[in-house]
Amino acid sequence: MKSFKNFLLIIPVLSLLVCCIFCPITTQAAGLYSKYSVLIDADSGRILSGSNETTAVSMASTTKIMTLIIALENCDKNFVATTSAYAASMPDVQLNAVTGEQFIINDLYYSLMLESHNDTAVAIAEHIGGSVKGFAKLMNQKAAELGCNKTHFVTPNGLDSDKHYTTAYELCLIADYALKNSGFRKIITTPSYSFSNISGSKQYSVNNKDAFLTQYNGAIGVKTGFTRKAGYCFCGAAKRKNTTLISAVLACGWPPNKTYKWKDTKKLMDYGFNNFTKVNFKPENKNVKIFVKGGQSPYTYVKLKDNSCKLMLSSSDTVTYKIKLPRTLDAPVSKNSIIGYVKLFINNKLYHQTPLRTENSVKAVDINYIRYILIHTLCGIS
């Protein structure tokens, strides 16, 4: 990454502008098989490459990312789950547990993520949500909390349904949230796992089907998926040094093109690691005084605190950092009032904003204040 210079401009409305200028090059990974794809920086959430990334589509078993994080957050790992007849009736891929068979739910998490068993997903959902419908409600609540407004869950396993969908971008947001859970990360990176049912009458062994883990330097996971409607899908993550990237490829080919999802994911990751660099962006730290009309004090102050951040930037990016404040305020002014914003733009699009608040209050001039000033002036009191 070439070094850049900061330029500070002061315009009449006390708007401060800091710019970093780069020379344009390509801004998107090319030659992908997937119809819907995205690559984001995990730290900032910035989209580094995207194609139809905000289109809502089927996501198959990548659904189970949300299934696992809901389970981890809402259930003790030693809880005993019983396989219902409905769970046992799920189509392949299956653990092939029989009706009434019981398991420690933590063991089922490995079945869920390593082999993507559909019966396991329903068994987990029924015992946490009371039913598949109840569990889907928890999934949708979490999606809303994460700002995933184009995501809706119907099942815990991702079987095709017209009302079951997400976007490539929102799938990455869900994965980003899940990856912050150490238990989640442990499960998805486990190569193989063995367990038995509660009675000990049957032994099970599951193996991780995520080939990306062994094919790419720094790979973390996350989850594969396939249905006839969704095609091959994959949400992946990789970390190198201080950078974690998350990608999603949806509708990435149909049989026999099972390897397309790995090729696309590696291409996206290479694009991110090779074309972007993490840059520390730090504006000037200073105090600004704002004139107050009709105030007992002529000024209030705004402290431009440390708004530094780390951004993944390429040589094609233009970054604009603006701090806008009014020239004057009318009294009274309350302490901690929001009177402006620090706004960060990348390529002229608003990326992030932080409110600016007054450091002190200023009362309005009133009769008591005027009397006080007159007395002190006439008596020569300083």
Question: Overview of this structure, please?
Answer:
With 382 residues, the chain is an alpha+beta fold. Helices cover 27% and strands 30% of the residues. It is built from 10 helices and 19 strands. The radius of gyration is 27 Å and the shape is elongated. The relative contact order is 0.16. Residues 1-26 have low confidence and may be disordered.
Topology:
Elements: E1 7-11, E2 15-20, E3 36-41, E4 47-51, H1 64-74, E5 80-82, H2 85-88, E6 102-104, H3 105-114, H4 118-129, H5 132-145, H6 168-179, H7 182-188, E7 192-196, E8 203-207, H8 212-215, E9 219-227, E10 231-240, E11 243-250, H9 260-275, E12 277-281, E13 286-293, E14 299-304, E15 309-313, E16 319-324, E17 328-330, E18 338-346, E19 349-357, H10 367-378
Parallel strand pairs: 13-17
Antiparallel strand pairs: 1-2, 2-16, 3-4, 3-11, 5-6, 7-8, 9-10, 10-11, 12-15, 13-14, 16-18, 18-19
Helix pairs in contact: 1-4, 3-4, 4-5
Short description:
This protein has 382 residues and is α+β, with helices and mostly antiparallel strands. Helix content is 27%, strand content 30%. The chain has a five-stranded antiparallel beta sheet, with no helix packed on it. A five-stranded antiparallel beta sheet has the order 4-3-11-10-9, sandwiched between helices.
Let me know the largest β-sheet.
5 strands, antiparallel
Radius of gyration: 27 Å
Q: Tell me the span between the first and last alpha carbons.
A: 59 Å
Strand elements, count: 19
Share of residues in helices: 25-40%
Separate helix tally:
10
SSE order:
EEEEHEHEHHHHHEEHEEEHEEEEEEEEH
Structural class: alpha+beta
What does the average pLDDT come to?
Answer: 88
Strand content: 25-35%
Uncertain residue ranges: 1-26
The dominant shape is elongated
Spatial strand order of the main sheet: 1-2-16-18-19
